[in-house]
Amino acid sequence: xxxxxxxxxxxxxxxxxxxxxxxxxxxxxxxxxxxxxxxxxxxxxxxxxxxxxxxxxxxxxxxxxxxxxxxxxxxxxxxxxxxxxxxxxxxxxxxxxxxxxxxxxxxxxxxxxxxxxxxxxxxxxxxxxxxxxxxxxxxxxxxxxxxxxxxxx
Length: 153
Description:
The protein is mainly beta. The chain has 2 domains: 4-79, Roll (Ubiquitin-like (UB roll)); 82-133, Sandwich (Immunoglobulin-like), CATH 2.60.40.4300. Helices cover 6% and strands 44% of the residues. The model has no long low-confidence stretch (mean pLDDT 92).
C-alpha cells in the first residue's frame, strides 16, 4: 500500500511580496498529482503578470517517497508595466491698465506673458492599473521678475 503524500504550489507576486494563491494536492507515493501550473500561469498572464520562475518547470507533478516532508513548489510572478509621460505648461500674463481706469486711445503697453514647461515620466502597473510618477522636471521653476514699464503722462 502506497504512503500518503502532500504537495503544494505557491504563486507569489514578487512585486508586492504577497502569495496570490496556493494549490494543495493530496495523493500517494509515486502517484500523479494530476496537476501542472500551465492553466494557472495562463490565467495570471491574462491579468498582465510576467512569469519570473516556476520551480515545477511546467511538468506534471508526481508525489515523491518522503513521508516526513511535503513537496513545495513556487511560481514567482511580477507585474507587467509600460512607460508613461506627461507634460504641462503654466502661463502668467500681466495686463497693463491705467491706474485711474479711464479709457484712453490705444493700449497702455503690450501684455507681459511668460510660460513655464514641466515634464515627468513614470510607469503604469498593468496589473493594478496604477500610474507611478517620477518628479516633475525641472522640480522647481519660477517666472522671471518683471519690471513694469513707466508710461509718460
